[in-house]
Amino acid sequence: MVDSIDSWLKENGITEVECLVPDMTGNARGKFIPAHKFIKEDSRLPESILIQTVTGEYVDNHWDIVAPLDSDMLLEPDPNTVRIVPWADEPTAQIIHDCYTRAGDPHPMATRNVLKKVLALYEKEGWTPVVAPEVEFYLVSQNTDPDYELSPPPGRSGRREFARQSYSIDGCNEYEPIINDMYKYCEAQNLDVDTLIHESGAAQLEINFLHGNALDLADQVFTFKRTMRETAFRHGIYATFMAKPMTNEPGSAMHIHQSVVDKNGDNIFVDKDGNESDLFRYYIGGCQRYIPHTISLFAPNVNSYRRFAKDIAAPVNLEWGYDNRTAGIRIPDSSPAGKRVENRFPGVDVNPYLAFAASLACGYLGMKNKLTPTPHCEGHASEDGEIELPRNLLHALNLLTDCPELEEVFGADFIKAYAAVKMEEFEAFNKVITTWEREYLLLNV
User: Fold this and answer.
1) Phi, psi at residue 220, to the nearest 5°?
2) Cα–Cα–Cα angle for 212, 216, 221, rounded to 5 degrees
3) What gap in Å lies between CA 298 and CA 112, rounded to an integer?
4) Region 378-400: what's the mean pLDDT?
5) How far apart are CA 361 and CA 114, in angstroms?
């Protein structure tokens, strides 16, 4: 393995290597190493980086989660993740690393390892998940003062978008220079980006990825977010993956299409005659049963829950339906071989490793426990206006920590660490007095 990476570095004239580890939030932690030292030296990082909050703080029970010595993790580069950094001034490579304990075991709090653990459960059954993510995001004008609202950036015409531009070709073309550079960077990194559309929000775009291996696609989404941010920076704007960055605009999702194939490559969601299988129904039943308990992995930030509101394009129910975008679980029209389930709950602010792991875990538990779904929804899934999901991070974390089946799948150490990190973020947010409170409560209560 090391020899293949060494050869690649030499063939591409690489002078520096970014050693990357996805943290709990899905952001890149790591270090820069000169290429000539990369092969000769083992890479290590303190395990505490895995339990930093999005603000860079550590949890109150830090020493109950990591060893008192705050030991180093051993990092092992994955040769399948070796990529050029196309925006770097010097020839630079980026390599995603797996984390191991000093004893040589996969580190239980490393999010990439959590996804690998779920995939191993499928492999034991002779199954392989196939996923395809849809990544929505906003382009916004640079905003260095967080007290000010975000706004769309000017396009080629010099004007800002304010009207709805869903699927507008001309709307996309307004940002053609940025999009062209994004595609150029993606091609240089072998990212399987497919179609691009203009979503319904002002300067909101969506990139679809080709379906494939779940771990590889998680790596690609992780890499794409870095790529899109860098592309936007170079054009003097921001790309944001907040779930709900603007008050009057819709949120951004990362819908996950998923199916499962057997050892012969056949889709287990249909039988030999092309009819829906029992496993397909059980998979949906598992999603309905366990999505409430995994919602903190699909909505991992305090801002995430602003997506789950009435009368906006986001799921607020646990219904499922055929080609029904009002349902949280949608079954797209397809051929029998392409039969799949679309999970519409994740926001784009997810850690892709954890979102894939959670979605696949729900389906796996449904198939193993033979959970029967409700009848499919034929009308508007939210006509009654009832919201069947947690409305804040605290409620979501309570559901996560109160589910023995998921603890067995993900591991008790990970559940404890994740809940601690997200609870710390929730408490930090709770200390902030918002503009709404000052506007409506200051003189009226």
Assistant:
1) -70, -40
2) 100
3) 16
4) 85
5) 11
Give the whole-angstrom CA distance, residue 161 versus residue 163: 6
β-pairing, 72-77 vs 92-100, is antiparallel
Asked whether 151 and 269 are in contact (CB, 8 A), the reply is no
- Name 343's bridge partners: 256, 329
What is the radius of gyration, based on Cα positions, of the chain? 22
CA distances from 216 to 18, 134, 155, 187 (A): 18, 15, 33, 16
Would you give the DSSP letter of residue 70? -
The answer to whether residues 102 and 129 touch, using CB atoms and an 8 Å cutoff, is: no
Report phi then psi at 238, rounded to 5: -110, 150
Residue 437 is encoded by which pair of tokens?
């409170």
Tell me the three state secondary structure of residue 129: strand
Nearest Cα to 178, choosing from 249, 252, 230, 243? 230
pLDDT in tens, 27-58: 999 999 999 999 778 889 999 999 999 998 88
pTM over 0.85: yes
Look at residue 280 and tell me whether its pLDDT is greater than 80: yes
Pairing of strands 92-100, 16-22: parallel
Rounded to whole angstroms, the Cα distance separating 14 from 84 reads 9
β-pairing verdict for 43-46 and 83-84: unpaired
Q: pLDDT by residue (tens digit) across 185-223?
A: 999 999 999 999 999 999 999 999 999 999 999 999 999
* Count of Cβ atoms closer than 10 Å to residue 195 Cβ: 10
Measured between alpha carbons, how far is 8 from 35 in angstroms, rounded to an integer?
11
Q: Model confidence over 284-295: pLDDT tens digits?
A: 999 999 999 999
CA distance 412 to 97: 23
Structure tokens at 297: 């992995």
Q: Enter the tokens of residue 59.
A: 């949890």
In 3D space, the residue among 300, 284, 283 whose CA is nearest the CA of residue 424 turns out to be 300
> Residues 320, 377: contact at Cβ < 8 Å?
yes
Strands of 62-167, DSSP E: 72-77, 83-84, 92-100, 128-141
DSSP, res 269? T
